[in-house]
Write a structure and sequence with these properties.
DUF1985 domain-containing protein
Length: 377
């Protein structure tokens, strides 16, 4: 059955049985404190669950964009295998240096394993609501609204949304072509697969120059955070940026990743499936979107993933360092999760809020302060 767009007025649909109006309802829960292996660190993010909105502070539910369910296959280009390759190709000494760089360095310790759930992504995208804002998306899950916005993206990923090199510094850096001239002097364009091959070669020869780190950072950004096809051309400017590790790791990659990911979250599924397509690609970094779902809907995270205890590698990093994707989609389906949600009252986080420690971290401080507290549609 082909999808249909909703009207401009709130409606009841097969995707949600909730009425168009609802009241604020807040449940008090016992504070849940997760301790690290040293039993000294308190997980402040888990403490935030002590007050979670069961509905929302919005005065009425926004209408869903789609009113009918339809099945589709969702594929992703962002592969966890890229992080695994980087972890294999870098020595322990390399990784120690790598993780000390800001923004991207901590991602070397992202838990590897599990799978991306295309079924979860598709079912969430079917539940997008009408939203007049260009840079955020709202969803309606069993009558409860959830927001995916800069705040949520940054708390999950730890990527920088602002600051970094000035326009003059960027222009100056685009004059540097050392890596290109050294490794691919005769190639007109450098492909992602070229970067991977060269990085692997340097790991085999145990090259101790910074080139291995430069290519590892470039491979992470071009292949994982922005999920380019292996045969796609690496952005020439990014290759130039990689010549300077300090420049590269201060660059606001969050803007690049967020905009690309958001473009695909906001994809017009009605138009896409009117073309008789039964599958679509989710570009950008859909892993961030999946971890956001686990954070925003704790019951979902409990059933489909595993939240790790605090340790030395993840306690000062972004939230996705704490999540292990352990369940295959075929084992735990989104429909099964919805059944669990319908069977008992469940809590959601309509918006994600930083802990006191998170609010002081560089990645959070780089968010435009004028956008942080707006929860209107």
């Amino acid at each position: 059955m082909m999808p249909s767009a909703s009207s401009s007025q709130p409606t009841t649909s097969p995707l949600s049985s909730s009425p168009p109006g609802f009241e604020r309802n807040v449940r008090e829960e016992t504070n849940h404190i997760t301790e690290s292996s040293s039993n000294e660190e308190v997980d402040e993010e888990d403490q935030d669950i002590s007050r979670m909105v069961l509905t929302s502070e919005l005065k009425e539910l926004p209408p869903l964009i789609l009113s009918e369910y339809f099945s589709a296959k969702v594929t992703v280009r962002s592969k966890m295998a890229i992080l695994k390759e980087i972890q294999i190709w870098l020595t322990e000494e390399d990784k120690t240096i790598f993780r000390n760089y800001p923004q991207l360095g901590p991602l070397i310790d992202l838990p590897i394993g599990g799978e991306f759930s295309g079924a979860l992504a598709h079912n969430l995208l079917l539940r997008k609501t009408v939203c007049q804002k260009d840079h955020e998306v709202w969803f309606l899950i069993e009558g409860k609204p959830l927001r995916f916005f800069l705040n949520e993206f940054v708390l999950i990923s730890g990527l920088y949304m602002g600051g970094g090199p000035s326009e003059d510094e960027i222009k100056a850096q685009e004059e540097h072509n050392e890596l290109k001239n050294k490794y691919w002097p005769t190639k007109k364009s450098v492909l992602l697969v070229d970067v991977a091959k060269k990085l692997k070669e340097l790991s085999i020869t145990n090259d101790r120059t910074n080139d291995k780190l430069k290519l590892a950072f470039l491979y992470m950004v071009a292949g994982f955070l922005t999920s380019s096809d292996s045969k796609k051309v690496v952005n020439p400017s990014w290759l130039q940026y990689a010549n300077d590790l300090n420049f590269f790791t201060q660059y606001p990659w969050g803007n690049v990743c967020y905009n690309q990911t958001l473009d695909y979250i906001k994809t017009d599924l009605v138009a896409k499936f009117n073309k008789s397509s039964s599958a679509y690609n989710f570009y950008g970094c859909p892993w961030i979107f999946q971890i956001w779902a686990f954070e925003a809907i704790p019951k979902l995270g409990e059933m489909m993933a595993k939240k790790l205890a605090l340790n030395e590698k993840n306690k000062n990093g972004p939230r996705w360092l704490r999540w292990q994707n352990v369940q295959k989609p075929i084992v735990v389906s989104f429909d099964r999760c919805l059944e669990a949600m319908r069977s008992a009252e469940f809590a959601v986080r309509p918006t994600l809020n930083p802990s006191s420690k998170e609010s002081q971290r560089e990645y959070y401080l780089r968010i435009d302060s004028t956008t942080q507290d707006d929860i209107s549609l």
